[in-house]
Design goal:
The chain is of the alpha/beta class and 238 residues long. It has a single domain (7-237), classed as Vaccinia Virus protein VP39 (Rossmann fold). 24% of the residues lie in helices and 32% in strands. The protein has 7 helices and 12 strands. A hairpin with a 4-residue loop joins β1 and β2. The longest helix is centred in the middle third of the chain and has 11 residues, at 150-160. The radius of gyration is 17 Å and the shape is globular.
Length: 238
């Protein structure tokens, strides 16, 4: 059976385990060893065979300009869904905001807490603290794909935020459309061998498919913005 949400089983291979992380961390909270060059490559492989490279160094690094742009849009308590190693949760906290990272991966939660910010190991569809009171909910780094049904995920986010709250999502560039199905993480190299992780439900939402997806969940887009090649949108209830 394919689990509804499998960030733990699907992405733990690129987060690593507790035995290969040093105790010392840089000033940003990033484990020092993660700043070394990558030895392996990682892709997210979709049902149609498309391979999207996973930016592992970016996830483990300090908050980059795109993440700072997202954090700058937040003015109150914010929940970071699918927080991974926690660089966005960190960027929020650095702005003096109440911030909570949520991820189903125990390793992601551990790494986020190691940055000195709050994180909870939980499926996003399970009960979460502060439901209906968050000023903002965030879905970045492709996390609008969690569970393979973006409209369902956005409806879940609607239950998390306050009546006047906003949802900030990262979407794919124009031309990606909307696709839903299974995906898995592929790691390694042709020379050293490759390993496929467990399959899980995932979706891709292109910028041109966001309005229809948002409308189906009771949202509308009030602002879109870019940071380099990355596309984002801010949603409010209709």
């Amino acid at each position: 059976m394919i689990p509804t949400i499998t960030l733990g089983g699907g992405f733990d291979v690129v987060l690593g385990g507790p035995d290969d992380r040093p105790a010392n961390h840089g000033e940003s909270g990033t484990p020092v060893a993660l700043l070394a060059p990558e030895r392996h490559e990682h892709w997210l492989v979709h049902a149609d065979g498309r391979r999207d490279p996973l930016p592992i160094r970016r996830w483990h690094g300090p908050p980059e300009p795109a993440i700072q742009s997202v954090a700058a849009r937040c003015t109150g308590p914010t929940i970071d869904l699918g927080c991974g190693p926690g660089r966005l949760t960190l960027a929020l906290a650095q702005r003096g905001l109440v911030a909570l990272g949520v991820d189903i991966s125990a390793e992601a939660v551990r790494l986020t807490r190691n940055r000195g910010v709050a994180a909870l190991r939980r499926d996003v569809f399970d009960p979460l603290p502060g439901e209906g009171r968050w000023a903002h909910a965030l879905l970045v780094d492709g996390n609008i794909g969690i569970g393979g049904d973006p409209a369902r995920l956005l409806r879940r986010c609607a239950a998390l935020i306050a009546a006047d709250g906003t949802l900030v999502v990262e979407v794919e560039p124009p031309g990606a459309g909307l696709s839903r199905g299974q995906a898995y993480v592929l790691s390694g190299s042709l020379r050293e061998g490759q390993q496929a992780g467990p399959a899980f439900r995932w979706a891709r939402v292109g910028v041109e498919a966001l309005d229809a997806t948002a409308n189906a969940a009771g949202f509308r887009s009030v602002h879109s913005f870019r940071s380099g090649p990355r596309w984002f949108a801010e949603l409010v209830r209709r």
